[in-house]
């Protein structure tokens, strides 16, 4: 066009700048920027806005700010402000995005749905519930007609969940006049991320009742909930749904299936899914390695790790947690040492506290207590409760009372409100026949109003999860359950099983 002597106008330039943004052709965009300055086209708001967007897409936040604040040409409109706010959020400056929004309001501009969605995502990134609630109130106080804007409602749900308020998220969700699959996904995924897996599955069941088909994001969130609740039956249903609808079990879905089967105790099914995946990534291998380690199948876990290297897929920090855990459970000290050293030597990964904890656990289980202590002393980072807890566990296994007392002091200093160190140390004293010291610890716990966290057992029956705690009688069939438990205990005692052993206590 230029070669033919035709002069581009304010309609031409925005299209060319959009093309530059799509292909991130920064140098070409800068040349057009210069051309727009020479021809006075930058005074046009459409040219100005698309140029801002180009710099935002290319990650040049300073260029966006400079263009926005210091150029005297165009009259800035809502698109200009929205582009600036979006650039700040995208580049990791959510607080600057909020400040820009306040400046926009002072300039007497009313935000539209897109501006508010971007603004709410900034609140999500900040995790600032107070600020997010203020933005929500601003929408209603200024009578913004957004009742039909499903995107704003979805952004509000996401913001409230990421800021920790399931109550307000549920309120927005329930009051929505129209919901799409993103609305349901926001609720299900948000609840699952907060560890409210039962509530997430309740929402999923409601989604099914309204006849809306789940997508990949829905299925991954449901599988995550199944994995953490041990709901194998529902997990199998999801897998059958995936097969029936010919959804590829690769990437996120495949990885979620592996994790679900492993955590629900079906490691062979997890391995079948893994083998059937055509495209495996680092997360696929890591999920399989961690799953095998969890099931005590160290050799298979290490074989998968070797295959991973042969396939040219580099492990990450989580992969090595699985590998070191596998070595620890199998007592493979030399293998564990080698992999721990390879982290930094070959893969340029800095060991974190989780990796040091795995190594302390490995040495402790193998009876190499002095080596575990030496490792902690030479740690380049401050050892946390996970590391000290691993050492205290080793003290219990090998009856190291004096060392246990030192470790307990460290644990109490780090986590003064937790009861784990007291319970474990009390057991160490009991094993060493130091009953007075054990009783003293129990009295200290009572004095500090520290109660032992009750253990929780769960079982899945007909797709429903049932939880039980010590002394729990809240279940509607608790009378029948305790009656059957008493009969089982009686039969075991009559046949001489468990009598006089620690296991017998579990039935009393």
TrEMBL record:
GO BP: RNA modification
GO molecular function: RNA binding
PPR repeat segments: 77-111, 149-179, 180-214, 281-315
InterPro entries, per the entry: E_motif, PPR_At4g14850-like_plant, PPR_rpt, TPR-like_helical_dom_sf
Keywords: Repeat
Domain of life where this protein originates: Eukaryota
Family (UniProt): Belongs to the PPR family. PCMP-H subfamily.
Name under which the protein is recorded: Pentatricopeptide repeat-containing protein
Lineage: Eukaryota, Viridiplantae, Streptophyta, Embryophyta, Tracheophyta
């Amino acid at each position: 066009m230029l070669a033919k002597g035709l002069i581009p106008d304010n309609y031409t330039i925005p299209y060319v700048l959009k093309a530059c943004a799509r292909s991130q052709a920064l140098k070409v965009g800068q040349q057009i920027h210069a051309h727009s300055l020479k021809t006075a086209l930058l005074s046009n708001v459409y040219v100005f806005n698309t140029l801002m967007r180009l710099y935002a897409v290319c990650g040049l936040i300073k260029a966006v700010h400079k263009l926005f604040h210091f150029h005297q040409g165009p009259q800035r409109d809502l698109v200009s402000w929205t582009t600036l706010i979006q650039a700040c959020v995208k580049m990791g400056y959510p607080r600057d995005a909020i400040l820009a929004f306040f400046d926009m309001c002072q300039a007497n501009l009313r935000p539209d749905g897109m501006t508010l969605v971007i603004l709410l995502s900034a609140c999500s990134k900040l995790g600032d519930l107070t600020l997010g609630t203020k933005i929500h109130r601003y929408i209603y106080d200024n009578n913004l007609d957004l009742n039909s804007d499903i995107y704003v409602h979805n952004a509000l749900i996401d913001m409230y969940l990421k800021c920790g308020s399931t109550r307000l998220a549920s309120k927005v969700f329930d009051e929505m006049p129209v919901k799409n699959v993103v609305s349901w996904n926001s609720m299900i995924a948000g609840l699952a991320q907060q560890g409210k897996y039962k509530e997430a599955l309740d929402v999923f069941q409601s989604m099914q009742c309204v006849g809306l088909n789940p997508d990949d994001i829905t299925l991954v969130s449901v599988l995550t909930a199944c994995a953490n609740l041990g709901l194998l039956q529902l997990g199998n249903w999801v897998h059958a749904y995936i097969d029936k609808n010919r959804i590829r079990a690769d990437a996120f879905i495949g990885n979620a299936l592996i994790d679900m089967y492993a955590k629900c105790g079906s490691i062979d099914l997890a391995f079948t899914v893994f083998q059937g995946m055509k495209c495996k990534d680092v997360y696929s291998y890591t999920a399989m390695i961690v799953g095998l380690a969890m099931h005590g199948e160290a050799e298979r876990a290490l074989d998968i790790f070797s295959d991973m290297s042969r396939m040219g897929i580099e492990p990450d920090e989580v992969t090595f947690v699985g590998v070191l855990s596998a070595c620890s459970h199998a007592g493979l000290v030399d293998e564990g040492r080698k992999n721990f050293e390879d982290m930094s030597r070959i893969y340029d990964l800095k060991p974190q506290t989780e990796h040091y904890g795995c190594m302390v656990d490995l040495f402790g289980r193998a009876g190499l207590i002095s080596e575990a202590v030496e490792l902690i002393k030479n740690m380049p980072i401050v050892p946390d409760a996970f590391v000290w807890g691993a050492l205290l566990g080793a003290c219990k296994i090998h009856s190291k009372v004096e060392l246990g007392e030192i470790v307990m002091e460290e644990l109490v200093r780090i986590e003064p409100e937790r009861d784990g160190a007291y319970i474990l140390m009390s057991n160490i004293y009991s094993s060493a026949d130091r009953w007075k010291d054990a009783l003293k610890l129990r009295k200290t716990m009572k004095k500090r109003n520290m109660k032992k966290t009750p253990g929780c057992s769960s079982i899945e029956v007909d797709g429903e999860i049932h939880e039980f705690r010590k002394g729990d009688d809240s279940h509607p069939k608790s009378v029948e359950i305790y009656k059957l438990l008493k009969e089982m205990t009686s039969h075991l005692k009559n046949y001489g099983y468990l009598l006089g052993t620690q296991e017998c206590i579990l039935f009393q």
